[in-house]
Amino acid sequence: MPASKKRSDCPISCSLDIWGDKWSLLIIRDLLYAQQCTYGDFLKSEEKIATNILASRLLMLEENKLIIKLEHPESKAKVLYKLTKKGIELLPILIEISLWSEKYSDIPDDKKLMLKEVKKDKEVFINKHIKELSKGIR
Known about the structure:
Arc Repressor Mutant, subunit A, two-stranded antiparallel sheet
């Protein structure tokens, strides 16, 4: 991110400048679960992101090297979005947000099951998933 866009040199502030808006972590979440998505896949999420916001966030995430755009194997009109190593390394943050949310919110049973696995051994869970997600990335 260009220095002119930074609000401060605080590590939290610098991070939030990249992925701290309302939509970016949801895009990253979708890519963590699906491993790759088309533009249309993101539009189908239950949060109902607007197309202009989605296009803006995808571009910003790509410019900051959290995601990459790949050719779609079945259609020249589509592209696939995939996380980079930098994007995959946000998994522990999303896990911590999910654990915090479980304490204070009602969450679906499938997410409770996943968090139960996380709580057995968080480090093993994260390392296993980072390794799986990292297969075949540049």
